[in-house]
Amino acid sequence: MEFDVSIGKKAKSFVEPVMVFEAKVELDSARLKTALASFVLLKQWNLKAKCILAYLIRDVDIALLRLPDNGLMAYSSLAQKRRGRGFC
Q: Are 21 and 52 in contact, with CB atoms under 8 Å apart?
């Protein structure tokens, strides 16, 4: 289980993840499957952890992103944000 960014709290000799981010330039079905597997493993260990998937180019049907609609993850397209005002 590996994440691009992990924010956590110190718990004895390690950091317990509170929020994790996966960032993908191009999101296809294989990359989505890998990210979802990592999120599921994390949720098995820590149910309160928040999982966020950010991508630039979506090469997968939007219905596949909506499948894990049980609070497993949140997702966002950075390309859509860039078209709007206030992108940083």
A: yes
